[in-house]
Amino acid sequence: MLPRPNPREIDRRNRLAMSAVPLPSQDPSARTANFDEVYLQLDENSARVEARRCIQCPDAVCTKACPLHNDIPLALWQLEHGHVNDAAKIFHATSTMPEVCGRVCPQTVLCEGVCVLHKKKKPPVAIGRLEAFVADHHQRHRPPATDCEPPTGHRAAVVGAGPAGLTVAELLAEKGHSVTVYDAWPSAGGIMRYGIPKFKMSHAICDDITTHLRKLGVEFVFNTSIGRDLTIQELFEVGHGAIFLGVGAGRAMELQVPGGDLHGVHSATPFLVRANVDPDKRPPSLKDPPEVGERVAVIGGGDTAMDALRTAVRLGANEAMCVYRRTEAEMPGNEKDRALAKEEGVQFQWLTQPVEFLGDDRGHVVAMRCIEMELGEPDESGRRRPIPIDASEFTTPVDNVISALGYGADPLIAERTPGLETDRQGLITADPPTGATSMEGVFAGGDDVLGPKLVVTALAQARIAAEAMHQQLMQA
Question: pTM score, two decimals?
């Protein structure tokens, strides 16, 4: 591994003059006919050239903007000199899932968003794609053996096989603890499999992560809901000395519109699972393929809405429309995904809110009555409040409606676990420096603590909780 470069030896003028390397991707007309990843693999030479655009600024603002504080300049320095696996090891030093973060993180508002090349009116270094490249290269060349510390004799339970839970499982297993992961879904991955479409991230990555964890000795118990099938107390009773709750925030916000119970009106998660997840990894209730007609309307403006719209296009919808009650400036989703959706033919109906869904004599939705909106003063979210415009109602035909209004906490575990404190939103209360909850031996992190956030923020919290759990187990 090369040492960190001397800043005085970096020819920044030459690096600033370099053009950004075009990122290979499927053509929009081709990618809408498949569910393969939109972005294609960089070749090593292109990756090294793009990495050389990093000017190795001493402040490393990209590292500070990353919730995991990945040492991005040092990783890119290794990459530009051809030390690809060393670059991957630097990302792995602070991240359990660089192959995931490189694909799904909103780099435009994190590391790439603060890249100093912006000040020179240059495209930022493609940090996300380079992170994914080195992680994929490392995966292909990773030796089969895995190094763990000697067994400690201690056991830990992880509830939730999403990004946070799998991170805790990996870190504790490496410390020599016996780890069992419980999840309500039929397979591991959490939101990475049952929320993120394949065209953003191949689900084979979830399989690779699971295989790696099994090699570390991690055991998995699927189709088991903690709170319904087992309780936290029962997990302690079978010998687990510490428990991590990483169940996410998967309860969909309901669409409170008359006609929302018509056939053809769907919630986003079941729709995405049916369309993107292999049949053998779906629960029995979601085995049937999704329903998609000629005209699909998706209500909402976040990442899930874009995922649903782009999925509908791939399933054959001739018209996929995003219906959003504010303007594009207020949309909360990743702007890269929005740009890709536009390339794929998705239409946007701004300042519009549905007020009723209309059905035919079979009880199937056929139209949507909407009202136009205007923006008033900012509300509690900091965005301007949408206000209905009098006498502006109109009706548009639809064959399917998908609700993607956001997610909240599932209250099941808290309701079945006396002594587990939650806030008014139902999110688990956890101590930021440790992830410890109000219950002795129970820790939490990720979306069930923060609310719907990012994979990278879940990983950051999981690393903190894993260390605190290790310390507690070793003191037992």
Answer: 0.96
